[in-house]
């Protein structure tokens, strides 16, 4: 009886010795899978900003610019969304990506690093009603 028990135990051990590498590989894969399931969820990627809904193309007469400077435009809506941009006056236009359609209020002004004050400021109101809106500045700041 003891011999048959020893023989059966030896056979089981020899069979499990052949399967040992399989157990080691599968347990490693299971451990890695468990790690990434638990801790991979903690990795957060920030959401990309929403694409602009509209584009405002501000235009002015580049021949009326005079001394080289930049034209800066700062606009805000009633919800507090602010958009700002600037371009050299000699270019004659600038495009602004708008977060949504609506009415924007703000200022257009001449911006020069050498100037001490901004004395060419123009208060503006712009209605952005289409996906692409062209806006002619009444005066070059």
Please, how many helices?
A: 1
Sequence of strands across the biggest β-sheet = 3-2-5-6
- Strands, count: 7
Strand content: 25-35%
Q: Could you report the average pLDDT, rounded to the nearest whole number?
A: 80
The protein's oligomeric status is single chain
Report, as a whole number of angstroms, the end-to-end distance: 108 Å
Poorly predicted runs = none
The helix-and-strand class reads alpha+beta
Cα-atom Rg, whole angstroms?
Answer: 35 Å
> Which shape, going by the Cα principal axes?
rod-shaped
In short:
Helices cover 27% and strands 35% of the residues. The protein is built from one helix and seven strands, in the order H-E-E-E-E-E-E-E.
Describe the fold and architecture.
The protein is an alpha+beta fold. The protein has one helix and seven strands; from the N terminus they run H-E-E-E-E-E-E-E. The protein has one helix spanning 2-39; strands spanning 54-59, 70-76, 82-88, 93-98, 102-111, 121-128, 132-136. Strands 3-2-5-6 form a four-stranded antiparallel sheet, with no helix packed on it. It has a three-stranded mixed sheet with strand order 4-1-7, with no helix packed on it. Strand 2 and strand 3 (82-88) form a beta hairpin. The termini are far apart.
């Amino acid at each position: 009886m003891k011999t048959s028990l020893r023989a059966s135990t030896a056979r089981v051990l020899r069979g499990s010795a052949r399967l040992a590498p399989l157990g080691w590989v599968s347990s490693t894969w299971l451990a890695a899978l468990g790690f990434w399931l638990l801790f991979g969820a903690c990795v957060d990627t920030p959401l990309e900003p929403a694409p602009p809904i509209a584009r405002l193309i501000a235009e002015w007469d580049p021949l009326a610019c005079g001394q080289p400077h930049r034209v800066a435009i700062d606009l805000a809506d009633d919800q507090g969304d602010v958009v700002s941009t600037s371009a050299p006056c000699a270019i004659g236009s600038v495009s602004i990506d708008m977060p949504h359609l609506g009415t924007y209020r703000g200022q257009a002004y001449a911006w020069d690093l050498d100037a001490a004050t901004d004395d060419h400021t123009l208060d503006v109101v712009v209605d952005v009603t289409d996906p692409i809106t062209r806006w002619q500045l009444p005066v070059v700041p």
